[in-house]
Amino acid sequence: MSAKKPFIGFIGLGRMGGSMAKNLMCPEIDLMVYDIVHDRYPEYEGIGASTAKNLVDIAACDMIFLSLPASKEVRETLLGEKGLLPHLREGQIVMDFSSTSLASNQEVAEALAAKGVGFMDAPVSGMPIGALNGTLTIMVGGPEELFKAVYPHLCRMGKTILHMGPVGSGQMTKALNNVLYNVSIAALAEIFPLAVKLGINAERFEQVVSNSTGGSYASRYFVPRVLERNFEGAYPISGAYKDLVNVESITIKECIPVPVLSATTAVYQMAARRNPHLDKSSMFMIYEELLGVTVKK
Length: 297
Hints:
Helices cover about 50% and strands about 15% of the residues. By secondary structure, the chain is of the alpha/beta class. The strands form two sheets. It has a six-stranded parallel beta sheet, sandwiched between helices. A three-stranded mixed beta sheet has the order 7-8-9. Strand 4 (about 65), helix 3 (about 70-80) and strand 5 form a beta-alpha-beta unit.
C-alpha cells in the first residue's frame, strides 16, 4: 500500500504567496489553496490543486502555510472570530511565511500550542522574482522536528532554507536583515544628493558606486529607479519604518545602544510622514529638497 500523500493548505495567493503555492505543487502532495479573492483559482485548478470556497475548508489539511500581508491578517485568519483555530486538531502544523511583529507571532504560537498544533514562523526574502523562481531565502523559527517535517516542501519554494532556532527566531532574523538593508538605503539617500550638490554627475557616480566598495544590493536596485524618478512599486516606506520601530523597541527594552539604527529610524520617520505610500527610495526626496538638487539622469 502506498503512503498517504501530505495534504497541504496554502492561504494567500498574492505577489509572493501566489508563486510560492505554484512551486509547492507536485505529484507527491495534495494541495488546497485559499484566498479571499477567487479570481486566480482557475490558475491553480489548472495545475492540479483544489480550491477552498471557505477558509475553514483549509482546516482539513495536515499542514497549513500562510503568506499574508501583515500581523493583522495572520491573527484574523488563525485567531479571529471566523478564524481557523476552533477547527484545528492536535498534530497539525501551521507555518507562517508572512512578516509579522514578534508580539503577534508569539500570541499565535501560544494559542496554537494550547490545541496541540505545531507552529513555525518562516518569513522569506528574495522579492517576487525569488518567489517566482523558487529561489527565496526562508528563515524558520520553531521546533527542529517540525522543521525536518516541512523541509522537503520548503525546498520547492526556496534556495536557502535555514532553521534559525525556536519560535520567533525566523521573524527576528528577517527583522535584523531588513535593518541592515534599510540602513544602506538611508545612506544612499543622503550621499547621492550630496554628490550632486558637490557637482558630481549622478549617473556616473552610480556607475562608480555599483562597481566599487560602496556598492550593494540596495544601490543596484534603488539608485537606477531614483535616476528614472520612479518612487513607486517597491516596499512602501511606511512598512519599512514599522520594521525599524519593531527592532528599536526591543533594543530599548533590553537597554542596548544602537545609534545607527536610531538615526536611520528618524530618517524613515520623516519620509513616512511625507509620502507613506511611496517606496523607500522616496527618502532621496528629503535630502534633494534640503540641498536644492535632483538626482536624475
